[in-house]
Amino acid sequence: MEKIKGSKQVVYKNISLVLQRLSLIVIAIVMVLALGGKFELASASTPNAKSEIQELANCYALGTDAIGRGNLQEGKNIYQNCFTPDATITAVFPSGASETRYGANNWADFVYAVFQANGYQATQHLIGTVNISVQNNKASMSSYLHATHKLSDTSIDVANGTYVDEVVNKQGSWKISRRTLTLIDFLNLSSPGASESDSSKSSAAVSNFSTAETSTNSLKQPHRPYIPLSNK
Question: Can you state the angle between helices 104-118 and 49-68, rounded to 10 degrees?
Answer without folding.
Answer: 40
